[in-house]
Design goal:
The structure is a homodimer of 602-residue chains.
Chain A (H helix, E strand, L loop, with lengths): L1 E2 L5 E3 L2 H24 L22 H18 L3 H17 L8 H6 L11 H19 L3 H19 L13 H12 L2 H13 L4 H5 L23 E2 H18 L2 H17 L15 E2 L14 H18 L2 H15 L17 E2 L3 H4 L23 H10 L6 E4 L2 E4 L5 E3 L5 E6 L6 E7 L3 E5 L7 E3 L4 E3 L2 E5 L4 E6 L4 E5 L11 E4 L2 E6 H4 L5 E3 L5 E6 L4 E11 L6 E3 L5 E10 L11 E2 L3 E2 L1
Parallel strand pairs in A: 7-11, 19-25
Antiparallel strand pairs in A: 1-6, 2-8, 3-4, 5-24, 6-7, 8-9, 9-10, 10-15, 11-14, 12-15, 13-14, 16-17, 17-18, 18-23, 18-24, 19-21, 20-21, 21-23
Helix pairs in contact in A: 1-2, 1-15, 2-3, 2-5, 2-15, 5-6, 5-7, 6-8, 7-8, 7-10, 8-10, 10-11, 10-12, 12-13
């Protein structure tokens, strides 16, 4: 199937419309302001010299590139001269400071370091993000200055890496350029960009010279331990890995490379069956920001980077398009409503880089009496990070979130994600009205649609509708749908358990309501560790304006305080209490607080 | 109360007799052999030069000193010319290589480094252990050569530190000498040694110059953050802290220093109410080998050093003698049967330094894909460590374990620990016959005893006896006991829970049978994380010769494997199984295995 692009779908109302509007009205400016303050915008002047403030970091190009990509999507649906002028200003600087041979990189231009010598300096990663932004900006505005700059840069990279073997390394230390080159190829029809993507993919895992030049990394960290076609487990830095896998999926699709596609299937299967948090977060450890071993999913120290959730959505969506397997759309939904969404505050201004599934404020006091400090995730979102990849990644995914909603294949339409929206795809129109994820009712108006496939979410046990349908690959397949009909996915709070192998969740349960994972915050519930939820779940659901969705009150018990450190279990006492649960993605919006996703039952 | 010393109590049979015999027959030689191989014994020649093998480490004196102390205890009960000659040989070398002014330290003698300049080089810690060994050797053999050497050394330390302020630091970086000096004072009646102990205690926390010279340490690490009299929470390196607290208790007792005694009470209360594992292990983290914050008791990464359990036994025994509060005897028992005993293998040859309460072999695979390695405890005991403080500490505690059994106060006798043994204290005789901890039956023959106090262990709910008694401070107080009578502490497996504040054990239970904490090993039970014990405990108890005590078979359930990573709790399936539990201290004696102390219930 092929997704219906963001520019052919209009969000009308509801949960995602609100989130997108917040992105357009607040987040995009907030990220710009912080990027401006920190020198990231000014850096495009390429006039930094030793002794000046705001020394450009080697990943700054990519931060701003993602912001530009977001603006491209935003101004397509709603012209905005302020944002467009800002982007044009940056593009002018890129054109001005691009080297004669096409090279562009702020850090290597101003630092005096020799280009293409340090694999770990994100040079090709920055190039990739710039290319993606250039394609988006060309496609939404028709302006080709940026695109031409990036074509010239891509040509240089082709020459240096593929023709001349003229760099100290062969493949990027941080992947991204692979999928970017394929976007550039699809936009320009220049076959060499596809070839270059294939070159980078083929060389990975085959170049001793690559990992030797990054002494602090292992072959696993950079996905360089084996040929991509032989990969069967997700390894190393999670964002790098997932960007690579996206590139592999794109390349496999464009070239019908079955071996590479098979590797993609094994990789996503490894992730979703063994290495993914219930939130759709991935990357279990801050050490190398990496995937670790199967079922190693600690909650408090979960790295689960916002960018990794976004990258998982991107990879899963690609696999959905290729294999049309509904399970991949479930993964997109899981990450979208939980791991990704946790990355941004309710006011749209602040961001998490790491998204742990447990916060215990006491842990932060632990470091005091020890000689070495542990790494601990921050407990409150901030406006900008030194390494600020996640905020503009949220900007660009929010600005185009509707691209995940619909797809077509052989004339049949697919509804993959439920957003109150309209397909504005010429004569064939689908209008979905829904309060999803507040409830499971989906009202559909279909015009000129012969065949409609509607995903039944994996969390749903029961579908109510008068419409006739057959099940097909996990979709409700409706031939000649009525002009207007309603489907209801029965939505109720469900206790979820983790696979026996997940030690961190051993004996515990989580609560999911529709696609959203819930959490228990200390600010609502006092000591979260003394709480046990009733295993015969008794709940009350209430819509909460602040969260744009429901909060849940559940029957529970509190283990009484006992002054002894250890005592007979039979001496335990419990009082009945009401436990308030809020969506996981909404935690940490009311100051620092303990938080758990996995709780004990009684 | 005053403990009846090791040389007035003879172990006759049973659990501790076997352990002590293993120490005398196997461990003492095994430790010697490894110390010999690694150059620790030869180092006393003080002839090491640059370029030679086996460069002496600055803590080697202390390793061998503890071994000598153990030999002193062993040869008191059973003459052994082989061991005695070895010790005499070392003592000759100490005398020969002692500096003219009394200084003795292998490392500072051979390295050329200036003495008394590096607070963190364990110089006074080594001196302390040598003094303790010298006192023990003098008391059991009557030979005074070693004692005289150490008196001379103590005199020098008095002069340099107390009279001249002639060292770069004021107080030891690693405590030990405080209690050693008090032992030396009590043995020699030389008041200056008590004064010097008081000097080191008084200066602690009051010397900016001390912690400035140990840049890698914090004030907490070395218990240097506040005056000892103001201490109310156990902080920093656990063994250092506990050795300090032992010195404080000794000093408070000798000098009737109520403020210092009050600090000791607060410290032990902080430990046993907030910072102690169920095994009596202490020191929650390898980072600084330290106490951390209250209730921070992670199982898999527990440091819980063997020496720290021994030191806790020493501190608790001192507090028991001072305050006569039965709860301190319970702590001694808890550490003795669990945290301390886990430090040595069943064959008596191999040792643990760290004693975590959970082993998951998968965790060791995690490091592979990350760029930084976590510290992980070893999973199998070894014969010697580079820092090999624990093995000879086990030697000396095992060789004198009977000193914890009995005490006297105002003519009344106390039984604090239950060992099959005889008090050989002149005319007054107590003979205890027991299989403890295999069962709770204690048969007592009392001769010339007017008043007997028998501790009721905290784990015991019900005492069976025909003897008349009153309860007094947690003891059964028996006036004019019968010549022979039996007491039975009803012993049955009990599920134990941890304080609500202990997050690591939240929702879990442990199993205790008498004083022993049990564990579930993978080698007996397969995947330990899929196991749930029946919460209406159904067990079978069987004596196991290998362990010298009982193994327990309990009714349990195994959560079925499900291929999904997350699924509805209601889809969970369980099969009933038998779970085998063995004493925690016996784990890791049959090869590498997963192990848990805290398990889930169903």
């Amino acid at each position: 199937m092929k997704s219906i692009e963001y520019d052919c779908v209009r969000l009308e109302d509801g949960f995602w419309k609100n989130k997108q509007k917040l992105n357009e009205d607040v987040s995009i400016y907030s990220v710009w302001n912080r990027f401006y303050d920190t020198g990231r915008i000014g850096a495009f002047k390429c006039d930094w010299k030793q002794g000046m403030d705001n020394q450009p970091h080697y990943y700054w190009d990519s931060d701003v590139a993602k912001w530009i990509e977001a603006v491209a999507y935003i101004i397509k649906s709603e012209p905005n001269s302020v944002l467009e002028e800002r982007v044009d200003g940056i593009i002018d600087l890129i054109e001005k400071n691009q080297w004669d041979d096409g090279y562009f990189n702020i850090y290597f231009t101003v630092s005096g370091e020799e280009r293409f010598t340090n694999r770990n300096s994100h040079e090709l990663y920055c190039a990739g993000h710039l290319m993606e932004a250039a394609v988006a900006y060309y496609q939404t505005t028709g302006k080709d200055k940026f695109l031409n700059c990036m074509k010239k840069y891509a040509d240089l990279i082709y020459k240096v890496f593929k023709e001349e073997d003229g760099a100290v390394f062969t493949t990027p230390g941080h992947e991204c350029i692979e999928m970017a080159l394929i976007k550039l190829y699809k936009c320009t029809n220049e076959k060499r960009y596809l070839e270059l993507a294939g070159f980078f993919l083929d060389k990975r895992g085959a170049n001793k010279k690559d990992y030797c030049c990054v002494p602090q990394s292992t072959e696993y960290y950079c996905q360089d331990y084996v040929s991509v076609r032989d990969m069967d487990s997700a390894e190393g830095h999670a964002v790098r890995a997932l960007y690579l896998y996206c590139g592999m999926a794109d390349y496999a699709k464009e070239t019908n490379d079955d071996n590479m596609l098979e590797a993609c299937r094994k990789l996503i299967s490894d992730i979703i069956n063994q290495k993914m948090y219930i939130t759709g977060g991935v990357g279990s450890t801050f050490m190398g920001e990496a995937f670790t071993i199967p079922y190693d999913l600690p909650n408090e120290s979960a790295y689960s980077e916002t960018c990794a959730s976004i990258a998982l959505m991107m990879f899963a969506q690609r696999m959905l398009e290729i294999d049309n397997d509904v399970k991949y759309a479930d993964i997109v939904e899981r990450s979208m409503f939980n791991g990704m969404l946790d990355g941004i505050s309710l006011d749209g201004k602040k961001f998490f880089y790491e998204n742990p599934l447990e916060v215990n404020l006491e842990t932060y006091k632990r470091n005091r009496s020890t000689t070495t400090e542990e790494h601990l995730p921050i407990t409150q979102r901030v406006e900008v990070f030194e390494c600020s990849c996640c905020p503009p990644n949220i900007n660009r995914i929010m600005a185009s979130i509707q691209r995940f909603a619909y797809a077509v294949k052989d004339g049949a339409y697919y509804i993959n994600q439920f957003m109150d929206s309209t397909i504005t795809d010429g004569e064939n129109i689908i209008r979905v009205k829904t309060k999803y994820p507040c409830d499971g009712k989906i009202n559909i108006t279909a015009k000129n649609i012969d065949e409609l496939n509607i995903r039944i979410p994996s969390w749903c046990d029961k579908v109510l509708t008068n419409e006739q349908y057959e099940m097909k690959n996990g979709y409700m397949n409706i031939k000649n749908p009525s002009a207007n009909f309603t489907i209801e996915f029965e939505m109720k709070p469900v206790l979820v358990t983790a696979n026996t192998n997940v030690r961190a969740d051993c004996g515990k349960a989580a609560l999911q309501y529709g696609p959203m994972v819930y959490c228990i915050e200390g600010i609502d519930n006092g000591d979260v560790y003394s709480i046990r939820l009733a295993d015969n779940l008794e709940t009350q659901i209430d819509y909460d304006e602040t969260y744009g969705t429901n909060v849940i009150t559940a029957k529970g018990y509190r283990k009484s305080k006992n002054k002894d450190l250890y005592y007979k279990l039979s001496d335990d006492e419990y009082e009945q209490i009401s436990v308030k649960l809020i969506p996981y993605s909404c935690h940490a919006n009311r100051g620092e607080s303990d938080m758990i996703v996995w709780f004990n039952l009684k």
